UniProtKB/TrEMBL annotation:
This is CxC2-like cysteine cluster KDZ transposase-associated domain-containing protein. Residues 13-22 have a biased composition (Basic and acidic residues). The lineage of its organism: Eukaryota, Fungi, Dikarya, Basidiomycota, Agaricomycotina. It comes from the Eukaryota. Residues 1-22 are annotated as: Disordered.
Amino acid sequence: PRIRNRPIYPRLPNDRKTDRATVTDGGGNIGCSKYYQLYGRKGLTGGLMVAWCTHSICVGFHCIPRGEGRNDVFSSLFCYWPTAPDDVVYDFSCALALYCMLREARFFRLTRFLIDAFHSEGHTRCSKACFIRQYREFEAHLRGFNSSAGESGNAGLAKIRKPLSYMAQRHAVIFCHVFLAIWNRERRKKLAQTA
C-alpha cells in the first residue's frame, strides 16, 4: 500500500516531467546520456517498472505511461517503501542518486545507488563510485549479490509483452499481477530446492 504521496518540489525546475533529454549538471555540462539516448533511439514508450530483489523475485510493479525515467523509480521507492533500501541497483543509478538526494535527502541518506555489472560498461563518463564491481572486493555481502537479477526478471516479462499490448489498462494490470505472482511462486520453489 501507498505509505506517502509524492510531493511537488516547486524550486526544482521541470520536476515530474518525463526524463527524455540529456542530463546536465545544472551548469550546462552534459552528464551521463547513455540511458536517455537509448529511449530516444528506440522511441520506447510506456510499459512496466518492476522492482526485483536479488533473487529475481518481484517486490512490486507499476505501469508507466511514457518511457521510464528517474521519477518512476524515485516515486516508487519514496511512496511505497517505509524506509529507503540500503542499496539500489539500477542501470542509471549515476543520475538517480542525484535526483533522489535533491528531493528527499533525509529519506535516502543511507542508500547507496549502484549500476549493475552488466550496464556499467556503457557508463564511460560516470564515476566508478557508482559501479557495484568497485565495492565487491571490500564488501563480502556484495560478492554474492546478483546485480543482474532485474535483467533476468525483465527478460521473463518479455513473455507477456505481446498479449499486454492488446489489453486495456485494467486488464493489463490484473494480467501482470497474476503473471508476477506465478513467477514469484516458481522462483521461491526453486530457491527452496537449492537451499
